[in-house]
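Entry type: protein chain
Record version: 2
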Amino acid sequence: MKVFTLSAAVALFAAYAHAAPALTPVQVEARDVFIAALTFHGAAGASYTVLVPTNNTIVYIDNPLSVSSIDSQSVAFCTIRGSEGGSTVVTGNPESVDVSPPQPQIWAICQI
């Protein structure tokens, strides 16, 4: 009985392995993603820059600087959310936008 069970198991495994489709690598087309550089300006000349991909990915910002303006040197359309609920839109084509009221920024999202 043990021989029959073992033989049946081996035969079943062989049939399953033969019936299963072969795994082949799938070629995924690489896409270039443009990166927008946003520079955040606060008081006394303090500033920092965040790089944001233009594929609608939210980039979280962890910087306590109270931001009063945002500069973009790219052609991306970006929305930036402040910690106090303010929303700033930068429409690209080298631009500087005031943030009112000044507040730390918590995330940014960009697209072309």
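Comment: The first helix runs from residue 2 to 19.
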